Amino acid sequence: MMANKDLTFAKAVREADYVVADGIGLIIGSKILGHPLKERIPGVELMQELLDLASRNHFSVYLYGAKPEVLKKLHTVIKDSYPGVSIAGYSDGYTSSPEEVAKQIEATTPDLVFVALGAPKQEKWIDHHYPNFSKGVFVGVGGSFDVLSGTVKRAPKIWRTLNLEWLYRIIKQPSRWKRALLLPAYLAAIVRIRLRQK
Ligand code: UDP
């Protein structure tokens, strides 16, 4: 829905090597369109898996995004829980100059770069700077730093099993309501595409 209105974001999504379905709406939409996606992959779980991989293979990681205090806590969590990871550098998502962050990453050539600025900021930043990087996997992970640092709690298991994690997040952060208001328009768009397919 965002990409329909924002062409820079649309380009970033189109040019990504992988697009991961982190939302039950995408799973439902894919079923309606007759190309069902296997499962939902929450960004926070993707980040945990990648950190695990990084720890086992002694990869270097750069962390970009979130508030300074969140980043500090996350740094400690990674040191304690993923001892094989070396932190190439980090920068919070508010005070630092985005250009300066890109330069630091160019200089330190980390294996993995987690960008947690929220959508569409993180995708645009990655897409804009990607051509200057000589190596590395760049992943937009939204609010994952908040969760992995222990600052924000993920929805309890029952909410996740019922595919209601999105509702839990709205209740906890009412500012997210604006996004939920797009849901009826999203479903209508999917149904329109389905009818055209027929
Ligand atoms: N954020 C940031 N800089 C900004 C705006 C947001 O670092 O200018 C961070 C914010 O602190 C939070 C994350 O980006 O950690 C966005 O989380 P959200 O749950 O909104 O992500 P989304 O749902 O968009 O994936």
What would you say this structure looks like, in words?
The chain has twelve helices and four strands. 55% of the residues lie in helices and 11% in strands. Helix 2 (7-15) packs across helix 7 (121-129). The chain is an alpha/beta fold. It starts with a helix and ends with a helix. It has two domains: 1-41 and 175-198, no CATH class; 43-154, Rossmann fold (3-Layer(aba) Sandwich). The chain has a four-stranded parallel sheet with strand order 2-1-3-4, with helices on both faces. 26% of the residues are buried. Uridine-5'-diphosphate (UDP) binds at residues 65-67, 93-94, 116-119, 121, 142-143, 145-146. Residues 65-67, 93-94, 116-119, 121, 142-143, 145-146 line the site of uridine-5'-diphosphate (UDP).
Task: Give me the secondary-structure topology.
Elements (H helix, E strand, L loop, with lengths): L1 H4 L1 H9 L8 H9 L10 H15 L2 E6 L2 H14 L4 E6 L6 H11 L3 E5 L4 H9 L7 E4 L3 H5 L8 H5 L3 H8 L4 H4 L2 H15 L1
Parallel strand pairs: 1-2, 1-3, 3-4
This protein binds uridine-5'-diphosphate.
Pfam families: Glyco_tran_WecG
Organism: Bhargavaea beijingensis
Keywords: Glycosyltransferase, Transferase
Question: How would you briefly describe this protein structure?
Answer:
55% of the residues lie in helices and 11% in strands. The chain is α/β, with parallel strands linked by helices. It is globular and about 50 Å long.
| Strand neighbour order, sheet with most strands | 2-1-3-4
User: Based on CA inertia axes, which overall geometry fits?
Assistant: globular
Question: From the helix content, strand content and strand pairing, which structural class follows?
Answer: alpha/beta
CATH architecture title of the largest domain: 3-Layer(aba) Sandwich
Estimate the mean pLDDT confidence: 95
Q: What small molecules are bound in this structure?
A: uridine-5'-diphosphate
In sequence order, what are the helices and strands, one letter per element?
HHHHEHEHEHEHHHHH
